[in-house]
Amino acid sequence: MKKIFFLIALCCLSFAGLHAAKPSKQDSVIEQQVREAVESKNYQIRVEEIFPPINGERYLTGIYLLKIYNDSAYTQLPYFGTFHITPVGFDAYGLWFANKYSDYKAEIKKDHYYVFFRIKNGMEQYDAYIYIYFDGSVQLSFNSSYRSGIRYSGHLILPKE
Description:
This protein is an alpha+beta fold and 161 residues long. The protein is built from 2 helices and 8 strands.
């Protein structure tokens, strides 16, 4: 009896794999838009969640963007965390920068792009690690020379069709 039940369960599971969802035409259009945006170095990410080092995730109610345009990056993201070094005259805002970046690289992986760049805001330097998935979802992580690292999530703003 146990063998029959096991064989039926095994058959059901193997047939379920045959009927797995195939990528739709809309999915391939979105993937192509993601590829074009990242390769052109001209895209915007809408940030919707923040994952501070303590206190778990928080949903952001305002409009927060990370903009990449040619050789520059711009953002004003909120920050919850610890400062390890605070220079004299330093205003403790969120992650605010609007400068040219360095060391930009975008590597294509199996189901996403891995983007890395460095950017300075005054004396503070940020290392940005961005995972842009082909469905348009995004995971961001920033390490700073003065603060604890922080993570965000959101989505790539794609053109409407």
